[in-house]
Amino acid sequence: MLTRLETTSGQFSQSLDALRKKLSPDGSVVSARSQQLTLSLFGEPLSPQQVVERICREVREQGTQGVLKYARALDNPNISAGDLRVPEDRMVEAHRQVSSEFLEAVRAIRDNVSRFQRAILHRDVEVADGTGQVLKQRYTPLERIGICVPGGAAAYPSTVLMTAVPAQVAGVKGIAVMAPPTNYGAYNPEVLATCYELGIREVYAVGGAQGIASLAYGIPEIPAVDMIVGPGNLFVALAKRFVYGTVAIDSIAGPSEVIVIADRTSKPANAASDLIAQAEHSPGSSIVLCSDRDVLDAIDREIESQLRTLERAELARASLVDFGASIRCRDEDEVIDLCNRLAPEHLQISVDEPDRFSERIRNAGAIFKGHYSPVALGDYAAGPSHVLPTGGTARWASGLSANHFLRSYSEVAFTREGLRAIEPHVTELADKEGLTAHRESVKVRFRGEA
Predict the structure, then answer these.
(1) Which residue in 58, 345, 386, 404 is the catalytic one?
(2) 346 part of the active site
(3) 0.85 exceeded by pTM
């Protein structure tokens, strides 16, 4: 099932790099339908990057007509400008129709996420040294953000929770949700009910690069935002990269990924289920690291057994074959070194004593420790956002949190005595840099004094 790799092989590094590049934003993994649409729409087999650049530029230049052109070609041939925003009464009806159990889950998860995000939220800081200077670092929320919610192959009310609630904790008032015009996206009852329960009234039925561009540049029907967050396919990721600078973004995320660390104490059923769970995103990357060949064999057998009973088995199987790997390392040290090199989005430490691994892990989007902390907890309910760095970017990037929706600025207040005390240091550096006006802007405040 999983491709077996040995770290002792001379081709190991090349094989692993090729596997991971397939699912990065620099790769070209798109569906056959997307390839066909690209050819019919543009008349030539453009790369995903070229497709995104054309769409974003046309939306920026043509506004609503640019959005409708691609919405009609890619999603709904009959969509009009008046259809872009989902009516509030449709949201009210969705909220009324969904089960009480679903709403109870939404409320409980909202409380979990809020509790965690409030605890980690930045607070204003003041530093005074007693010599006449007071320095402050202050944080204010962004005014307006856009949230991308996928809706091609499955519905994701969890994405609404994991993005909107941290923003609300930060104090963001304007939240626009963008989802494709499908029964899994902007027309999905659970997605709409979740938005309504959270107090969100702006939901737009636009997907793909045209949706990202409309949020970034703004059109009469969709006011521009300050930041765009949330997952999506390759076209969404590339569009976020294209509009970055006009707006802020959370990350340029690729498909979901997990690395499972296993050893002789691991339960093969646990490890196999975590690998399959990420693979069912299709595409998704699932990699297991272990120094014991027998353990890897047992996990492989368990994967085959579990796939016989799952609804999305064929999708998961395809991802496991194309983007999965079972890697035998020399020892525990090499397991940890390789994990830090790969910097996975999700790291599942599926062993009895997970701390002996986690204490040495530097690079991971989120770590799930032990037999009772499956990655699904982070996806749905635990509290940290499930929007996490992918493609090895956890070496330097962090998962989305309430703090991403804050901008900081400093305040500087000096008394006369404080300025006099620091003036010689300012003068010294200004002279060395040849910026005499900088120097004089300090000295002028004392000119004429005894």
Answers:
(1) 345
(2) yes
(3) yes
